[in-house]
Design a protein that fits this description.
Elements: E1 2-7, H1 27-31, H2 33-47, E2 52-56, H3 68-82, E3 86-90, H4 93-96, E4 110-112, E5 119-123, E6 128-132, E7 156-162, H5 179-183, E8 189-193, E9 199-203, E10 206-209, E11 225-232, E12 235-243, E13 247-255, H6 262-279, E14 284-294, H7 298-303, H8 305-315, E15 322-332, H9 337-341, H10 346-358, H11 362-378, H12 395-399, H13 402-418
Parallel strand pairs: 1-2, 2-3, 3-4, 6-7, 7-8, 8-10, 13-14, 14-15
Antiparallel strand pairs: 1-11, 5-6, 9-10, 11-12
Helix pairs in contact: 2-3, 6-8, 10-13
């Protein structure tokens, strides 16, 4: 029996996005989350007596500010060396941006596969052939897998690749490949990286994205970790996800339609947060709270947004390891919008235009996408990785903003009417 761990996208010492320091916020604990998830990976490898660990790219998070990141990594790899666990790594797009990476020596149990061409490593004692190639530069647009060799006969073959694989949404289209192309190599297991959501693309053969080991923002919510793979009689018998994250991102939507006051809305949010923290005992919960619903409390909540954000944070300080990353108030005025749209005035005309945009009228959205494409081309590529990024080239994303704009305009128009 052979056991190995397939991990990817460690992003060691990556800054978790949007950290705000407020009284009671576990900011320092959150900032060290990627280090502690790596410690959990090492602990899992030792506990399970695995034969080796695969890291399918983005071990690092671009260039380090100093050598402390590398020294921490070297210490963790030395723990695996003491346990006689080999580590095989291919560089991803973030690794390729690191200068220090290229000069810092790792323990001799760590092998970085070639970035110049596909390399095959034979693990003779296990009858395993490991094939892989790392990124030679940050942006790799060709299909690296095409040049990978065919499977070697009579042994277990693993492909290690950092890839967007058929263009997964939300990720740069680096080293694109196809499932048919991967299958054609005849490998028994493909260990992929780059996509941060766990996904099993195939079970015959196994083609797996384990996801990243620690969520970095609310778009990476839910359990994060690595895959523990068991091989028996020359074939994969089990692929198990194992949680390794120490900060669990949660998106908590609270319907406050039935409340009559902003204070009551805060009480409802507190109960939802208490339930969420209880479900993730032992981990820090990083929560984004979204208030929804048609409620008469909309006006005080939206007009004094900052106050009610702080009220929610204050009400949750005794709930345990909890950090409220952001509070969004997406409530609505309890109005008859159909009647408002029929008004023969600027309010009605504006609401009718928004409804047309929401409905996806082609000419309006196409013109808007065309106008914004100039701006999109000038944005740095890192913009697409931001958790609040709006796809300026996608009509559906732009149409999705219609509700928020509608409520903002209604509140402003009604304020004007009340002052007349």
């Amino acid at each position: 029996m052979i056991k190995f761990i397939h991990a990817a996208d460690v992003h060691l010492d990556s800054p978790l996005v949007g950290l705000e320091r407020y009284d009671g916020a576990p900011v320092d604990e959150i900032r060290g989350a990627t280090r502690r998830s790596l410690e959990n990976l090492v602990g899992l490898a030792v506990e399970e007596h695995v034969d080796f660990v695969l890291i399918a790219g983005d071990l690092y998070d671009g260039d380090w500010k100093d050598y402390n990141t590398g020294l921490f990594l070297a210490r963790q790899m030395a723990r695996l060396r003491e346990a006689e666990v080999g580590v095989y790594v291919v560089a991803g797009n973030h690794d390729a941006a690191s200068v220090i990476t290229k000069s810092l020596r790792m323990p001799d149990n760590v092998t970085f596969l070639s970035t110049e061409r596909p390399e095959t490593i034979l693990v003779d004692r296990l009858d395993i052939a490991l094939h892989g190639q790392g990124f030679p530069a940050r942006e790799v647009t060709e299909d690296l897998s095409v040049a990978y060799p065919d499977a070697m006969a009579g042994i277990f073959n693993i492909g290690l690749l950092h890839t967007s694989a058929d263009g997964r949404s939300g990720h740069e289209p680096y080293a694109p490949c196809t499932l048919d192309g991967l299958r054609s190599k005849g490998y028994d297991y493909w260990a992929l990286g780059h996509v941060h959501a766990r996904e099993v693309l195939s079970e015959d053969p196994w083609i797996v994205f384990p996801g990243n080991m620690q969520g970095r923002h609310v778009r990476e919510a839910g359990p994060k970790g690595a895959s523990l793979v068991t091989v028996e009689d020359g074939s994969v018998s089990r692929v198990e996800h194992r949680d390794l994250d120490v900060v669990r991102w949660s998106l908590i939507t609270v319907d406050v339609s039935d409340v009559t006051t902003a204070d009551s809305a805060v009480d409802l949010v507190r109960r939802a947060l208490e339930k969420e923290v209880g479900q993730h005992a032992g981990r820090t919960v990083a929560a984004r709270v979204i208030l929804t619903g048609d409620t008469i409390a909309h006006k005080p909540l939206s007009e004094s947004h900052k106050r009610w954000v702080e009220e929610i944070r204050a009400a949750s300080l005794d709930l345990g390891d909890l950090w409220i990353e952001k509070v969004r108030i997406n409530t609505r005025m309890p109005l008859d919008l159909n009647a408002a749209r029929k008004r023969d005035d600027p309010i009605g005309a504006t609401l009718r235009l928004i409804e047309e945009i929401r409905g996806g009228r082609a000419s309006l959205l196409d013109d808007l996408v065309k106008d914004l494409s100039i701006m999109k081309d000038k944005l740095p590529h890192e913009y697409g990785e931001l958790e609040d990024a709006i796809d300026l080239g996608d009509a559906a994303s732009l149409a999705g903003l219609a509700d928020r704009v509608e409520q903002l305009l209604i509140a402003r128009f009604l304020d004007v009417e009340e002052t007349r």
